[in-house]
């Protein structure tokens, strides 16, 4: 009897890179490995989308559409090239308008995509309907997704087999067009038994003609067991990666899984161990200069308590490492349990995983629920759709108060369609004003990446990758961390002298240099409220570690209390900085792209 053929999608060049390097791998560095993967007989690749869209423009000075075109050239016309989309968010972190969702499908079809795997982190089926229509409109295969995770211990109310059956029935009843079905566990926390029962349930509902696959991560240490359970329950496909971007926070290794099915009635993609071994040797050589954070290679027993996706974990820990707060990681993971429970049990996958992380981080650094992270607040208020269960009423009220927004049950697409910044015509006009060609690709880049997209198109985006010291010695454009570039160094920085942190303002010429002690990171910063500055004004503090993305005011501007004056970028999210009091901007102590720490003074209002 012939073995059952199991389709293997190689996630190395998308999820693997995201889970280990935060997506920051240059195309010319990894293309030889793509050729080796093709020679090894791999024909199904995840090659873009998800965080591997924005990251190219943000950090690599590369055009994602160009990367996709070149990838297709290497593997040939017959390979199944797959991308990841976040439903109504597509490859953005915020909800897109209908016309941007349509443009996403059109551009990805134009640039080599065969299949789009499409998920909603809240499992709100309404959020999948329009994006599915657009994907099919442009001739692409649509892989519809039910997102999985295990709830933290002691939590109940969703994410059991009955919940997944309800979600799948809603997909089928709504008529969402699809070519395959994926159960996606970004945190790798679903137990093998639940996976088995879920796949078995799905097979009964959709019959034998629908392709069913499982996607998981090794983060919690049960990925191989979950894949074996899925195969035994009738799954047709699984996702694997190649060393050195396999295991740990990523997918199980191809060779590991080939070993795990020895003696079983499964043929994993017709792959040959020796050819895969050669491919992994080439990939290892391609990536030998890149810094691999140790947590990317580890299994963590804490993850089921959070749950934190592998694709987000290393991005977050790297930011904490860059900013000197990595010692807080276990506390943040522990704090996520309450955040998940009170937030309504949305699946911990982008962007919801970032909402959870950011809120847990704020709860650790500033005290429980002293602040509401904007994304988390908008989620519990309903601006991203319906959460699996109703969020905690007190948290909803707190979010409404802090964000000055009312709860809503309106379709998020209708809200997005009214947003001027989500209109194609607005971005076309912006490109024309900047003297940039208003091609459909450039319009989508600008809309998806906002000011960072404009900076890329103007040739002003930074190159920011992490390579080992020896690699960087003779490369002026190579950075070891997110925030270590000192080009255009004017601004406010943190330095350490004899173990004590100081804020230092740097400026050219004979400017008056300011040096201010920084509170120990072992204590919650006292900057959650405005602090008088020598009787001459009120300090506006940074509420999280991050980088200055936008400064919306200038010295001399009059501002009202709670007026937005800056935007920070932290944990992949935009953090609004509002004026604590009415007054006039007396000083601005930071510059765009400058790294800042919690409690650091950004501006002074007099």
Structure description:
The chain contains 20 helices and 20 strands. It has helices at 12-21, 27-39, 51-60, 64-75, 98-110, 126-137, 161-174, 192-206, 223-233, 254-260, 273-286, 310-322, 329-343, 352-366, 374-381, 393-403, 412-417, 424-434, 440-457, 469-472; strands at residues 4-10, 44-49, 80-85, 115-118, 141-147, 180-184, 211-215, 237-240, 266-268, 491-497, 500-506, 515-517, 538-541, 546-551, 558-559, 564-570, 573-578, 583-588, 595-596, 601-605. The strands form 4 sheets. A 9-stranded parallel sheet has the order 2-3-4-5-6-7-8-1-9. Strands 13-20-18-15 form a 4-stranded antiparallel sheet, with no helix packed on it. The protein is globular, with a radius of gyration of 24 Å. The chain starts with a strand and ends with a strand. Residues 472-477 and 479-534 have low confidence and may be disordered.
List the helices and strands and how they pair.
Elements: E1 4-10, H1 12-21, H2 27-39, E2 44-49, H3 51-60, H4 64-75, E3 80-85, H5 98-110, E4 115-118, H6 126-137, E5 141-147, H7 161-174, E6 180-184, H8 192-206, E7 211-215, H9 223-233, E8 237-240, H10 254-260, E9 266-268, H11 273-286, H12 310-322, H13 329-343, H14 352-366, H15 374-381, H16 393-403, H17 412-417, H18 424-434, H19 440-457, H20 469-472, E10 491-497, E11 500-506, E12 515-517, E13 538-541, E14 546-551, E15 558-559, E16 564-570, E17 573-578, E18 583-588, E19 595-596, E20 601-605
Parallel strand pairs: 1-8, 1-9, 2-3, 3-4, 4-5, 5-6, 6-7, 7-8
Antiparallel strand pairs: 10-11, 11-12, 13-20, 14-16, 14-19, 15-18, 16-17, 18-20
Helix pairs in contact: 1-12, 2-4, 2-11, 5-6, 5-19, 7-8, 8-9, 13-14, 14-15, 15-16, 18-19
């Amino acid at each position: 009897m012939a073995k059952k053929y199991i389709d293997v999608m190689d996630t190395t060049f998308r999820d693997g890179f995201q889970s280990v390097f935060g997506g920051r791998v240059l195309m010319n560095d990894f293309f030889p490995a793509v050729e080796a993967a093709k020679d090894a007989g791999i024909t199904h690749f995840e090659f873009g989308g998800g965080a591997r869209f924005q990251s190219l423009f943000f950090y690599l000075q590369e055009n994602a559409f160009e990367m996709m075109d070149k990838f297709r050239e290497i593997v040939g016309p017959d390979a199944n090239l797959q991308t990841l989309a976040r439903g109504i968010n597509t490859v953005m972190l915020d909800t897109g308008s209908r016309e941007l969702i349509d443009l996403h499908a059109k551009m990805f079809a134009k640039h080599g995509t065969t299949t789009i795997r499409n998920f909603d982190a809240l499992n709100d089926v309404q959020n999948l309907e329009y994006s599915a229509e657009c994907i099919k409109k442009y001739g692409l295969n649509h892989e519809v997704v039910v997102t999985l995770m295990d709830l933290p211990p002691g939590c109940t109310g969703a994410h059991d087999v009955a919940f997944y059956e309800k979600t799948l029935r809603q997909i089928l009843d709504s008529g969402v067009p699809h070519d395959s079905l994926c159960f996606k566990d970004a945190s790798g926390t679903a137990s093998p038994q639940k996976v088995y029962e879920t796949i078995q349930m799905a097979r009964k509902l959709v019959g034998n003609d629908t392709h069913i696959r499982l996607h998981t991560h090794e983060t919690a240490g049960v990925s191989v067991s979950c894949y074996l359970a899925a195969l035994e329950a009738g799954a047709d496909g699984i996702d694997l990666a190649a060393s050195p971007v396999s295991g740990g926070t990523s997918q199980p290794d191809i060779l590991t899984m080939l070993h795990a099915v020895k003696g079983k009635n499964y043929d994993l993609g017709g792959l040959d161990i020796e050819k895969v071994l050669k491919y992994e040797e080439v990939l290892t050589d391609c990536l030998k200069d890149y810094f691999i954070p140790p947590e990317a290679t580890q299994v963590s027993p804490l993850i089921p308590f959070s749950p934190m996706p592998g694709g987000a974990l290393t991005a977050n820990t790297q930011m904490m490492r860059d900013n000197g707060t990595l010692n807080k990681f276990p506390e943040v993971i522990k704090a996520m349990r309450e955040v998940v429970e009170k937030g309504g049990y949305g699946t911990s996958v982008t962007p919801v995983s970032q909402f959870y992380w950011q809120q847990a981080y704020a709860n650790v650094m500033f005290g429980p629920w002293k602040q509401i992270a904007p994304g988390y607040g908008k989620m519990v208020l309903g601006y991203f759709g319906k959460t699996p269960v109703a969020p905690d009423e007190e948290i909803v009220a707190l979010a409404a108060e802090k964000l000055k927004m009312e709860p809503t049950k309106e379709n998020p697409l209708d809200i997005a369609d009214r947003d001027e910044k989500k209109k194609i015509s607005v971005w076309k006009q912006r490109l024309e004003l900047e003297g940039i060609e208003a091609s459909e690709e450039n319009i989508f880049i600008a809309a998806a990446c906002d000011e960072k997209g404009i900076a890329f198109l103007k040739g002003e985006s930074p190159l920011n990758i992490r390579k080992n010291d020896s690699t960087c010695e003779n490369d002026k454009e190579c950075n070891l961390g997110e925030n270590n570039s000192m080009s255009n160094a004017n601004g406010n920085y943190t330095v350490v002298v004899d173990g004590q942190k100081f804020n230092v303002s740097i400026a050219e010429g004979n400017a008056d240099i300011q040096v201010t002690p920084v509170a120990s990171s072992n204590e919650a910063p006292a900057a959650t409220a405005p602090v008088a500055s020598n009787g001459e004004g009120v300090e506006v503090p940074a509420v999280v570690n991050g980088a200055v993305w936008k400064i919306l005011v200038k010295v001399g501007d009059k501002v009202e209390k709670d007026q937005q004056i800056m935007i920070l970028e932290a944990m992949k999210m935009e953090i609004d900085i509002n004026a604590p009091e009415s007054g006039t901007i007396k000083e601005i102590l930071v510059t765009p792209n400058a790294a800042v720490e919690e409690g650091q003074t950004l501006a002074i209002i007099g």
